[in-house]
Design goal:
The protein contains 13 helices and 22 strands. It is an alpha+beta fold.
């Protein structure tokens, strides 16, 4: 690894005598870690735990995740271990029964899927991505995770200006110079420069300045980067304190986690912790910028909602079914006002769970329903597929279900839903989304099951 000389000099100032151990750690392989979806599976005690996450595990090697149907079913998410530290900020400082949380820079969805699990269906999670090209993968990952209390948006931080005092917690995983990713991403080394560090620092401050008024008084700002330098980390935290009047909140951490702190946030260094470079700080808002005035949500009474939709979901009385064009979405009844407010101010891609689409007189159940936490267990006939048939389904190829009745069938792998087929007897029409389908050749020798 050919590190930039200026990076070495600057980081040596930070680490002192530890620098040589740090650089040696960068020459080793990156740890591989996953975070399981507690709503879909039991945790596997045979795997090594990520200390700061209740649902994070290390793998001994990196399998070809594409060959694992459970990966596509949202049973787990492949996430860098250090970034799972967000869980500590949430658990130690967010004490609200029905929190309203914004993940501002969310793609591809690691922190948002984690937040969805931590919230466990309570409150509202807004998962936002400013870059249009990246928001589709965010929406896909949030759909596969299955939480019904999620809204995916595609907006610049400045677009949130009118939502003053709307959120209890805002997570800003700020675009940064990427120093902590040097071991995983060689291109980030070539792109690094002191000038780029300064540009990132200025951009991070603009982002925080735009979004900070959207916090409620007493609300939490979780600021994080994958860098080591002071400009993007401690200096920015101090700037938030000085300019916004925020207070830095401490986290109680065991010494054996080996997480570094100087009082303005927490650093993960690869020679001290099993993970990549990462920085996180928790700040509390002390002032009051006012609050957004909620208006009653207007219904779509002109659209008749097919009664079959209520038969497909658990606890239908807890949800409102809304029509958007030919599509029907289920959103938690308790969130209708908040979602209406978001739709009046932002570019909302999806809200709640897409149940199905109207085609003629019929409603076709959607893959999002199959992958969601709200699907009623006995709503559809179930077919549990072999690995070969599961991969064929995920490749959007035709499969045969000779032992299933004609009609809609929920296809699963090891009991975990993957999507729907319309079984015609002689064939089964595959409804898996075209844009999600596996493109590489099936290779069962590369399938390494590790979820128990």
């Amino acid at each position: 690894m050919n590190l930039p000389e200026q990076f070495r000099e600057r980081t040596r100032v930070i680490l002192g005598e530890e620098y040589d151990s740090f650089e040696q750690a960068l020459m080793s392989d990156s740890p591989v870690s996953i975070r399981v979806n507690g709503a879909k599976c039991q945790q596997n005690p045979s795997l090594e735990r990520v200390p700061w996450s209740s649902v994070g595990y290390y793998l001994n090697s990196r399998p070809l995740f594409t060959m694992d149907p459970l990966f596509h079913g949202g049973v787990y998410y492949v996430q860098e271990a250090s970034s799972m530290f967000l869980e500590q900020a949430f658990r130690q400082h967010l004490h609200v029964d029905q929190p309203c949380v914004l993940d501002l820079c969310a793609a591809p969805g690691g922190k948002s899927t984690h937040l969805a699990s931590l919230m466990d269906g309570n409150g509202l999670l807004v998962s936002n991505e400013v870059i249009r090209a990246r928001v589709k993968i965010l929406a896909e990952n949030m759909t596969k995770w299955g939480a019904p209390n999620v809204v995916v948006t595609n907006n610049d931080p400045s677009d949130f200006t009118s939502l003053r005092g709307f959120f209890d917690m805002i997570v800003v995983d700020a675009p940064c110079s990427g120093e902590g990713m040097f071991r995983k991403d060689a291109e980030s080394i070539d792109e690094w420069s002191v000038d780029n560090v300064k540009l990132c620092c200025e951009r991070q401050r603009r982002i925080v300045a735009d979004i900070f008024p959207c916090l409620k008084e007493g609300g939490l700002l979780v600021y994080s980067t994958c860098t080591y330098n002071r400009e993007e980390d401690e200096d920015n935290v101090q700037w938030i304190v000085d300019e916004m009047g925020a207070e830095v909140l401490p986290l109680e951490l065991p010494d054996d986690w080996n997480i570094s702190s100087n009082g303005l946030g927490y650093h993960f260094f690869p020679h001290r912790t099993k993970g990549e470079g990462f920085f996180l700080a928790v700040l509390q808002k002390k002032g009051d910028d006012g609050s957004f005035r909620m208006k009653p949500a207007r219904g779509n009474a002109s659209t008749k909602i097919p009664t079959v939709l209520n038969d497909w979901i658990e606890s239908p009385s807890d949800f409102v079914i809304r029509s958007v064009g030919d599509a029907f979405y289920a959103v938690p009844k308790s969130l209708t006002m908040q979602i209406a407010a978001l739709e009046s101010e932002l570019h909302v891609l999806q809200a709640g769970v897409l149940l199905g689409r109207l085609k003629g007189k019929d409603v076709l159940p959607d893959t999002a329903l199959a992958l969601s936490d709200i699907l009623r267990a006995d709503a559809f006939e179930v077919a549990d597929l072999s690995w070969k048939d599961a991969i064929s389904f995920l490749k959007r190829e035709n499969i045969l279900l000779p032992n299933s009745a004609k009609g809609w069938v929920l296809v699963c792998f090891e009991g975990h839903p993957l999507g729907f087929v319309k079984n015609l007897g002689s064939r089964a029409n595959n409804t898996y989304p075209q844009e999600w389908h596996i493109r590489m050749a099936a290779d069962e020798s590369r399938y390494e099951p590790f979820i128990g």
